[in-house]
Amino acid sequence: MTLSLSLASLESLMLVSVRMIAFLVIAPPFAHKGIPSTVRVMLAMGLALAVSPRVSGPSAADTGAYMGALVQQVVIGAALGFLVSLVFSAVQSAGALIDLMGGFSLSQGFDPMTQVNGAQFARLYQLTAIVLLFASDGYQMVVLGLVRTFDAVPLGASLDLAKLGAAATEGLTGMFLAALQIAGPLVVVLFLADVGLGLLTRVAPALNAFALGFPLKILLTLSLSSLTFLALPRIVKSLTGTSLSAIVGVTS
């Protein structure tokens, strides 16, 4: 029994798998440190085996040209993964805003599992978004967007840097806007609490508003954060659609 493999097929398989690995290393939810690197590589190779038969790339003239094509695929996969990561960073940024206004940022630390440097709500929101992506099959939409990039950007083509820069700028602006929309109601309540404590200090100077403010803001944050937390499923669903639009906008 003999098994013959085409060199062109192997080259295309390697180029497809390199783009997918670079994407899965950066894009959520696959970038979470709780997912072993072996699982990411196996997932990328499995997807590459499914996609490579319908993807045709130019045959490399020599080793140098092929290595250049590999680097090009790494750049494309990393750029697309960065756009997806930028979109979902809005959830973490919203948690960071709540930590800042609620007084939890004093106890922030680095979480090696989620790769998040923040306090309780920043890490909680980030982990919840990852769980929701797996529970709601949102990760399949992210993978589908990656697979569709091979139709818009074949193996021999390159990304439009102008579109990539515009998408990154728009994604950064949208991240801050989405973070304010997620955490905005609670931030406004905490800001009004600060204003009320300031006015109370003017009325009763002997009252230690600083000592009263910390437990009051923590109580308000813990009491009202559930309203924002319950909206996370709809938010993650919306961000998944936004990430797909960002990928399609760059590769179209």
TrEMBL record:
It is found in: Cell membrane. The chain crosses the membrane at residues 12-31, 75-98, 172-192, 212-232. Pfam families: Bac_export_1. The lineage of its organism: Bacteria, Bacillati, Actinomycetota, Actinomycetes, Micrococcales. One of its GO terms (biological process) is protein targeting. Keywords: Cell membrane, Cell projection, Cilium, Flagellum, Membrane, Transmembrane, Transmembrane helix. This is Flagellar biosynthetic protein FliR. Signal peptide: none annotated. One of its GO terms (cellular component) is plasma membrane. It is a multi-pass membrane protein. It comes from Sanguibacter gelidistatuariae. Belongs to the FliR/MopE/SpaR family.
